[in-house]
Specification:
By secondary structure, the chain is an alpha/beta fold. The chain has one domain: Rossmann fold, CATH 3.40.50.1820. It has an 8-stranded mixed sheet, with helices on both faces.
Length: about 270
C-alpha cells in the first residue's frame, strides 16, 4: 500500500493514497475495523482511479483522538476527514462508506457537497438523530450492543468481526487484531453521541441532497432494517434503487466482493 500519515487537529491519520487516472474514491471503514477491509475494492480498482482509504482516529494505524469527546462521533470523524482532504489537495471525489463509514460519508455530503461527485454507502441506514432514529434504522440484535462497548472479551471480539464481515472473517486473526487495536472509547462515545441526538438528521439529508447516492446492502444483514431504507424518499438515488445483494450480510464488500465490485464500478462510472 502507498501509506502516509497526515497530522490533523483530531490526531495523526493513516492514509492509503494510490494515484490513478479517474476521479478519486475515498473509502471510509466501519466501526472497530480499518482501511484494509477494502482490500478487494482496492485490488479491483488498481491502476484505474486514485484511491484514498483512511483509518479513522482511534482505528488501524491512526493515532487515538487527541480529544475523544470532540472526535468520536459522526461529525468529529467527518471533520477529521475534511482536514485530510484539504491536506491532500483533492478538489472533487467520490465516496464509499461502510456502516459507521457510511454515516461519516453522509456528513461529508452535508459539509462538502460541491466536492463530492457521488456517494455509495452500505450497512448504513440514513437515520434521524436520537434513539427514535436508531430504532427506525436498526433491528433488535443483542450482539449489536457490543459495538458500543469500551472493553471487549475475546468472544465479543469474534461477534463484532462476524457482524461486520461475516462468520468466515472470524478465522482471520488480522480482523480480531484490528478490533483489539481500536480505542474502546471510540465505540462507546460514538454510540452515546448517536443516541443523544448529537448528529444532524441524515434522513432529511438524503431526501434533499443533490449529490448522487447509491445504497447497497446485504439481503441478510443482521442489524440493518432494510424495509426502513426502502421506505425513504431520496433526492438523487441511483437508478438501481436501494439494492439488496443476495446471500450477503453486513460485510457484503468482503463476503460477496465480486458482485459488490461490479455494482461499485457501475455507480462510479455513472457519476464520473
Amino acid at each position: 500500500m502507498s501509506e502516509k500519515t497526515i497530522e490533523t487537529s483530531h490526531g495523526r491519520i493513516a492514509v492509503y493514497d494510490k494515484p490513478g487516472g479517474e476521479i478519486p474514491l475515498l473509502m471510509i471503514h466501519a466501526n472497530s475495523l480499518c482501511k484494509e477491509t477494502f482490500h478487494f475494492q482496492i485490488e479491483a480498482l488498481a491502476e484505474k482511479r486514485r484511491i484514498i482509504a483512511v483509518d479513522l482516529p482511534g482505528h488501524g494505524q491512526s493515532s487515538d483522538a487527541t480529544d475523544p469527546l470532540r472526535t468520536y462521533n459522526f461529525n468529529g470523524y467527518a471533520d477529521a476527514i475534511c482536514e485530510v482532504i484539504e491536506a491532500l489537495d483533492v478538489d472533487r471525489f467520490a465516496m464509499l462508506g461502510h456502516s459507521l463509514g457510511g454515516h461519516v460519508a453522509l456528513e461529508l455530503m452535508r459539509l462538502l457537497p460541491e466536492k463530492i461527485a457521488g456517494t455509495m454507502i452500505f450497512g448504513t441506514p440514513p437515520i434521524p438523530p436520537g434513539p427514535e432514529g436508531a430504532a427506525l434504522g436498526f433491528v433488535p440484535n443483542p450482539e449489536f450492543g457490543y459495538t458500543g462497548k469500551q472493553t471487549l472479551t475475546d468472544r465479543e471480539i469474534d461477534m463484532i468481526v462476524a457482524l461486520a464481515l461475516g462468520s468466515d472473517a472470524v478465522h482471520d486473526a488480522f480482523w480480531k487484531t484490528a478490533v483489539r487495536r481500536t480505542d474502546g472509547r471510540s465505540r462507546e462515545l460514538m454510540i452515546d453521541a448517536a443516541l443523544s441526538g448529537k448528529h444532524p438528521n441524515q434522513r432529511t439529508l438524503v431526501e434533499t441532497s443533490p449529490v448522487p447516492l447509491a445504497i447497497v446492502n446485504g439481503a441478510d444483514d443482521p442489524v440493518i432494517n432494510l424495509d426502513y431504507i426502502d421506505s425513504l424518499t431520496f433526492a438523487n438515488l441511483w437508478y438501481r434503487g436501494a439494492v439488496r445483494l443476495e446471500n450477503a450480510g453486513h460485510g457484503l464488500h468482503w463476503q460477496r466482493h465480486k458482485e459488490f465490485n461490479v455494482l461499485m464500478d457501475s455507480f462510479l462510472t455513472a457519476v464520473a
